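Ticket opened by: R.M.
Priority: normal
Category: complex prediction / small molecule

The reporter submitted a protein together with zinc ion and asked that the result be attached to this ticket for the collaborator who will pick it up next week. Submitted input follows.
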Amino acid sequence: MLKKKTSLILTAIIRLVLLFSSSVYAYVPLKTGYLSPSIRFAPQPSQYESALISAAAFWNAASTKVYISRDANADNTVIMGNLSDTQIFGSYTPQFLDRHGQASQFQIWINQTAVVNQTTLGKDFWNVAQSIFAHELGHALHIGDLRSGDVLMNQLRDRNKIVKPQPDDINGVNAYVYPKQ
Ligand SMILES: [Zn+2]
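Result attached by the on-call engineer:
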């Protein structure tokens, strides 16, 4: 009898743990995101801008207040260039921080060398480029890097497969973005 009770209690505890672990968030806030949910960016060069526009469209389609668009005259620049360090896929650099620590301008780099290296592993150039840009946009949207999970903000994700924001990324943006407004 006691044994049965104990096992019932154990089962209840295991269920509770599973319930909480499945609803636990992974996203982390990033203070230095951009100061507005409306983001315009200028791609340099324009050669690969269709991949960038696709990545922006993924965010625009997500359930957020975010609207990201290409504008050749925008102050925020997105540069597709060659960095010698092939371990770096991309970077987000906040510029001109406001009094809340939010960026009033930013620069994103996408390392073409790293993208090309991925294609030698059988991965698709456009998928990888979109994944990198969508990830860096996540930083502009106030979410930081993770080291695990099937999420866009995981630095170790398969960039051929995870090319757009996942539910956890979207929750992170909705929870933390533009906290001072
Ligand atoms: Zn990152």
